[in-house]
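Posting this for the archive.
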Amino acid sequence: MADQHFDLIIIGGGILGTFHAYHALQEGKTVLQLEKDNYPVGATVRNFGQAVPSGMEAEWFEYGARGLEIYQSIQEEYDISVRKNGSVYIASDEDEQTLIHELKAHYDTLGYTAELLSKESIHAKYPSIKASYAKEALYFPQEISVEPGLMIYNLHQYMQSKFETYTLRYNNPVIDCVSKGSGVEVKTSLGITYRAEKAIICNGYEFKLLYPELFSSSGIVISKLQMMRSVPMPEVQLEGNILTGLTIRRYESFEHYCPSFQSIKTPEHYEELKKWGIHILFKKAADNSIIIGDSHIYAEVNQFDQLGFDLDQHVNELMLKEAERIADFNVRDLQSTWAGFYPQHPTHHIVEYDLDNRIHIRTAIGGKGMTASAGYAEQSIRKILS
C-alpha cells in the first residue's frame, strides 16, 4: 500500500469526505479514503438522518435537492436505508401559519412540490400529533430520511463493491499532509506514507491533527446537540421528518424567503427554549423507536472541551415538556440519550481552504451535512479536479 499511488486521497470517513470520494470515483479516479477511527463516529452518525432541502437557502437548497436524487439513485442499487416519506413543518400558531404559507409561495415559484395540510389532514396523516398543537402544516413529499447509524457504513460497502478503484482504510489517523514534487504525501500514525496527485481533508471537528494554526484562526465554532430515543413504538404513526413550530422559527429558508419572518414575535413560552437553541424534531427510526430533539450550545474551536460530554438534564426536560405539548405518546419512555457535535462557521455555510492546487480542505458544513453533502461534494470535486 505504501508504494501505491492514487489520484486522490480523502482524509475523513464521514458523509462529506465519503461523497467527495464517491463523485471522484464517478469520474474514474483512483481514490484512497482514510478514517482515523474503527468506523465513523462523529456528526455523520449522531443526528436525525433527515434530508430536508426545504430548510435550506440559495445554492444549498440546490445541493440538497440534487442530494435527494443521488441518495435515491444509490438506493436503487444498494440499500443505504433511504426512505422517501417526506418532511412536514407543523405550525402551532398564526405567525407560524403565515410563515409556512410564505414558504410555500416561494417554493411554488421553483416548482418544488409543497402541500398545505389542514388541521384535519394533519390528524389523518399524523394521528400522534395533538390536535391542540397543530393548526396547519406544510408537507414536502419528495424529501427523505436515512438511518444515520447504518447509512454511512452501507454507503462504504456499496462503494467498495461498485468501484474497483476505491480503497477504504479505517484506523488510519493522518498526522501529516504535505505537497511534495508534483503531488502530495500523506503520513499516518501507523508509519505509512501514501502518495497521490491531490488530497482533500474533510476531518470534522478534529482540527488539532492537521494545520492546527489554520484551524485555530478559522472562526469555526462547535455545536453540541442533545438528542433522545424512545423505546420501539410501532403503534405511533409519525412517518417521515416531523418538524415543528420552533423549527419554522429557526430554519434559514424561513428566515430568507418569508417576508414576515423578522416581524413575528417570540411567545413567552418559547423564550427559554430558544435560549438553549431547542427546536423539536421527531423521526421514527427503522426499529420503530422515535428520535426526539434537539438543542444547540456553542464553543469556539479552541474551546471545544468546554462543551463537555455530559448531558444537561435541564435541557432534556425542556425538550420533553415541549414534546409533550406536541405529541400524543409517552415521550418519556426512553431507551437512550446522547450528544452530537458538529463544526460550523457563524458566517459561512462551509469552510473551504485551498492550500495550493493539490491540498484542499472542506469542513464545517454544520447541520447541513446529511442534506447537502452529496450535492455539494459533486460540484466541489469538479472544481478540485479541474
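Residues 1-83+146-219+349-386 form a domain with the FAD/NAD(P)-binding domain fold (CATH 3.50.50.60). The longest strand covers residues 334-344.
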